[in-house]
Amino acid sequence: MKKNLMFLLTAVAGIILSSCEKEVVKEILTDSQGTATLKFDARYGDQDFELNKKYDFKLTNESGTYNLQFDFSRFRYWVSNVKLINAAGQEILVPNSYYLVEETQELVVDHSNDVYPATKREEIQLKNIPVGQYKSIKFSIGVEPKYNDNFSLTTGELGVLNGMGFDDGWMWFTSYKFLNLKGNIYWADGNPNKKTLLWDIGSNDLYTGAEKEVTFDKNIEISGTNTSNINFNVDVKELLSTTPYPWANNTISQTTKDLMKGLRDTFLSKAIVFKGTESKTK
Question: Where in the numbering of this chain does the Copper-binding protein MbnP-like domain appear (predicted)?
Answer without folding.
Answer: 34-249
